[in-house]
Automatic annotation (TrEMBL):
Residues 68-115 form the Helix-turn-helix domain. It comes from the Bacteria. SUPFAM superfamilies: Putative DNA-binding domain (SSF46955). This is Helix-turn-helix domain-containing protein. It comes from Duncaniella freteri. InterPro entries: DNA-bd_dom_put_sf, HTH_17.
Length: 299
């Protein structure tokens, strides 16, 4: 419900007189209100920039007055990152003093670096080796058992060099062999699951299998369009791995052998930092480390 009062006021933006219906009204129109709002935002942004600039200049002035600089202060003064500055220190390009837990750089040593005339050494561009060996798309598919769409997807992601010759796409042999050599599973893996076998054994859906493989980094391989997953690694991820008794104790075995309570055993493990491996609901203890710790004393 609109007010019946009429108040003569002056617009704070354009300066014209207008009749207001509320005492809190400051602008004569929606346009003036919007323009005033934008101006307030503009001024607030300008003030924030001024404060930031003032803090930066004050930091630089403070650094300029210090006789000995920390690596962080020196990096700010030179306008480089901390990593770059530590690279300069490692190469002995900038003199420094290393104390226990502290590195200091003398301001006078830093100034002396710029006193002399140091010629700029132009670095020649890196010479790229010419690619002379290529695969055709068909050869890549046959050798590594991937589809044409997978080939182009990997090539776009890894940016493999390619060229066209007589209507055929040729791919750099070196880049492709290096990529698949990195993806090749270890030769120690001899047992593999198919997705169907995993579904039957663990009752998992395909999406659950893919998520677990991605999360745990389970090795896999492709042969003739079929995907195989490492049996050992998948069993470990599902928590059904059985550890060899010569390497690990269970809590019950360690307590029985040394006549300890669970609290006493846990104290030894925690205080002496004995290696423990958690798999599923079971915790396994390094047999060698525990035996060495609790071995009878010798003179």
């Amino acid at each position: 419900m609109s007010s019946n009062i009429e108040i003569k006021k002056t617009c704070l933006w354009c300066g014209r007189e207008f009749i207001a219906r509320k005492t809190s009204t400051e602008y004569c129109s929606h346009r003036c209100s919007g323009l005033a709002y934008k101006e307030r935002k503009r001024q607030a942004k300008l003030e924030a920039y001024k404060k930031e600039y003032a803090s930066q200049t004050s930091e630089v002035r403070a650094v300029e007055e210090v006789e000995f600089l920390t690596p962080t202060q020196c990096a700010k003064l030179l306008g480089v990152s901390r990593r770059s500055l530590y690279n300069y220190l490692s190469a002995n390009s900038i003199p420094c003093l290393q104390l226990k837990g502290k590195t200091l750089i003398g301001r006078n040593h830093l100034d002396k670096l710029f006193d002399g005339r140091n010629e700029y050494k132009h670095k020649p561009p890196m010479q790229r080796s010419q690619i002379t060996e290529f695969y055709t798309s068909k050869e890549v598919q046959e050798k590594y058992g991937i589809s044409n769409s997978a080939l182009y997807e990997i090539a776009n992601r890894e940016k493999w060099p390619k060229t066209q010759s007589r209507g055929k796409t040729l791919w750099s042999k070196e880049h492709i062999d290096r990529y698949f050599a990195q993806k090749k599973p270890s030769e120690d893996i001899t047992e593999w699951y198919t997705a169907a076998e995993i579904q039957e054994k663990f009752g998992m859906t395909l999406s659950a299998i893919y998520n677990l493989v991605s999360k745990e980094g389970i090795p896999k391989k492709k042969e003739k369009g079929a995907t195989f997953y490492s049996k050992v690694h998948f069993d470990k991820a599902k928590g059904i791995e059985v550890y060899d008794s010569p390497k690990y104790y269970t809590y019950a075995e360690a307590m029985e052998k040394y006549g300890l309570t669970r609290d006493q055993l846990h104290h030894y493990l925690k205080y002496h930092n004995i290696t423990r491996v958690k798999k599923g609901k079971f915790t396994y203890i390094s047999r060698k480390e525990l035996d060495d710790l609790l071995a009878p004393p010798s003179i």
